[in-house]
Write a structure and sequence with these properties.
homodimer, 370 residues, alpha+beta, Rossmann fold, Dna Ligase, domain 1, D-amino Acid Aminotransferase, Chain A, domain 1, nine-stranded antiparallel sheet, four-stranded antiparallel sheet, globular
Chain lengths: 370, 370
């Protein structure tokens, strides 16, 4: 796996369970996965040589992020199966290509337009209205590279950065949903229950699995959309799709082709975790059951706060709520940095308590405030 | 953790989840845990120097087996906290000391006697009847070091080995149960649901969690017995107690103070796995909830068969039953060797199907026979 963040770290645990040899390409020995993995190579994922040296001896190469340059993916693919492949990964690396492809498939999306300058933005806003969402065409994640602009002045400020952007309609959604599916090279696919994600400032804070009170027909529609996309885009491995639920139906917001924050609940909450499923898919092993094992799961992300000593607070949280599953990624604590997550299992009727338990633990770990 | 077999391997996964640094002392780089752990030292657990070198830099030392010599445990304990401590571990290393201590505590056990020769065995059998069970006082596990002798001739054959033994009454039990508890240095304790173990030739083949149709009062009695023992013996970490359920009540068969085969079901089946719980206990972290997450779990061990190529059969099992959790330990396959286990989650009403699914997968992995 190229990349050694928390996604690779959790994939490492799954690889141990499956009895699969697992190597990571880490930027540094301090990376989350590099701390725990038995087979670590330190190197630069933007270096063709480092990538090829890393891949030597691997049966399959996969990724914990989407930032490997396309031309290197092509070079890698000559040496070893690369899953997902460059043609699929492109739609996670280039938001304009993604929007154009989805539009071509007739998949409902927010209105969008490539924009080169402020005139382009204001022309787009004349149709779609203000605010306008500007998104970096490549390189953004977790709210980075996304700007909600309420006025032409704000848009001009974004356009002053040397970053290619597209404009997207600002969606007044009811809530955000996410769907995770896995697809293997010979075409087997499995889709997880639809979850609700709760975002703040474009960053996922909470996942409710399954999405509360989601109509069965809507859930089916979302799952079918994602299974269809996985096949159309020839995804191998996981495909995570972030959706807006709106009065005019579901709209696709973002795609990722790797384990995804919206799927962390599957570690304890599903028969097959997303990390195990990704490995099974990219290795072309038969996929596992994606069903939930309990009727309701809540996951809350833990972010770094002003005080870096998260580990002394860890003890208090363990003592206060012995039913929580706390995952810390071994990252250096910086304010706002995603350093772990908390999962709690229960029943839909208890969802308010589950959210309170997970949220309180995440908050206390970050800030020491109850 | 001293020892790098499958117990250490699964503890390694739990350590990653908890964000805890984890080092193993392996006999060889091919050991199950040595293959997957980021911090491996190869050495000899019977060497005082190797043990001390290994422990240097560790906050706590614990074990995946009970074979470290007592005098080395004492030397280790001068350098670093050793959990469980030598005084507790002694009762897993010396079956005579264990029986005497349990008798002193009034814990119900099979009748037993130290025996030095055939005259001792026949004198014991005159009271307890034939067959007599001879057990090596130290070094036995998984049916090794246990001989069921139907006649004085069979006993004489065992006594011809240069092994110190005790005689135990052969128990005509209804079934075998096991209880797992964790206890931390400051005395917090947590006990798992009582399970039924199904043994063949003294080796555990199957675990049913919880034990089907166990009366609540009996379950409570078993759990209270084990929590009491953990406190009396000053166990830190896990205590696993194997019990006979008989017409005259519960009798203690064996003790272990480490993660135990009867607790593998907790990886998917309990809020806190036994491996995570052992780490929390020996590190004096608050313990996690030991409750089951689903109403019935079945675990079946996978043993090596005549054909070592278990990995090609692995694919078929994954394809045939995508709801199974298959764990392979990365061991070289030898006939009869425990090389993995299979867990399946469900409901008590489905127990026959759950046993069939887990058992069939384990059998097929071993033999290729359906």
């Amino acid at each position: 796996m190229v990349g050694a963040g928390q996604l690779a770290q959790m994939t490492c645990q799954a690889a141990i369970g499956l009895g699969i040899g697992f190597r990571v390409l880490a930027a540094s020995a301090a990376d989350s996965a590099a701390q725990v993995c038995a087979d670590v190579q330190v190197g630069d994922y933007t270096s063709r040589d480092d990538l090829l040296a890393f891949a030597s001896g691997c049966d399959v190469v996969t990724f914990d992020h989407e930032h490997v340059p396309g031309q290197h993916l092509a070079a890698l693919a000559e040496a070893v199966p690369v899953r997902p492949g460059a043609a699929a990964l492109r739609y996670t690396q280039d938001k304009l290509a993604m929007r154009e492809r989805l539009a071509g498939l007739g998949v409902p999306c927010p209105r969008y337009a490539p924009v080169a300058d402020l005139a382009g933005v204001t022309a787009f806003a004349a149709q779609a209205g203000w605010p306008v969402v500007l998104k970096a065409i490549s390189g953004g994640y977790d709210g980075r590279g996304v700007w909600v602009c309420g006025t032409p002045d704000e848009a001009a400020e974004v356009l002053a950065h040397p970053v290619a952007v597209i404009a997207e309609e600002h969606i007044d959604f009811d809530r955000e949903l996410a769907v995770l599916a896995a697809r293997s090279p010979h075409g087997q696919a499995a889709v997880y229950p639809v979850v609700q994600t709760v975002q703040r400032d474009g960053i996922c804070h909470e996942v409710l699995a399954p999405a509360p009170l989601l109509r069965e027909r809507r859930a089916y529609e979302a799952q079918r959309l994602v299974l269809g996309l996985a096949a159309e885009l020839d995804v191998t491995g996981l495909l995570a799709v972030e959706l807006f639920e709106t009065r005019r139906g579901l709209l696709v917001n973002e795609l990722a082709m790797r384990p995804h924050n919206s799927g962390h609940w599957t570690i304890e909450g599903a028969v097959t975790s997303q990390f195990e499923q990704h490995l099974r898919a990219v290795l072309d092993l038969p996929l596992g059951t994606p069903a939930a094992v309990v009727p309701q799961v809540v996951m809350a992300n833990v972010f770094g706060g002003p005080d870096p000593d998260v580990y002394s607070r860890y003890l208090h949280v363990m003592a206060a709520d012995p039913g929580l599953k706390i995952h810390l990624y071994g990252k250096q604590v910086r304010p706002g940095r995603k350093i772990g997550h908390v999962t709690v299992l229960g029943y839909p009727g208890l969802i308010d308590q589950l959210r309170e338990r997970a949220g309180r633990a995440a908050r206390y770990l970050a800030t020491g405030e109850d």
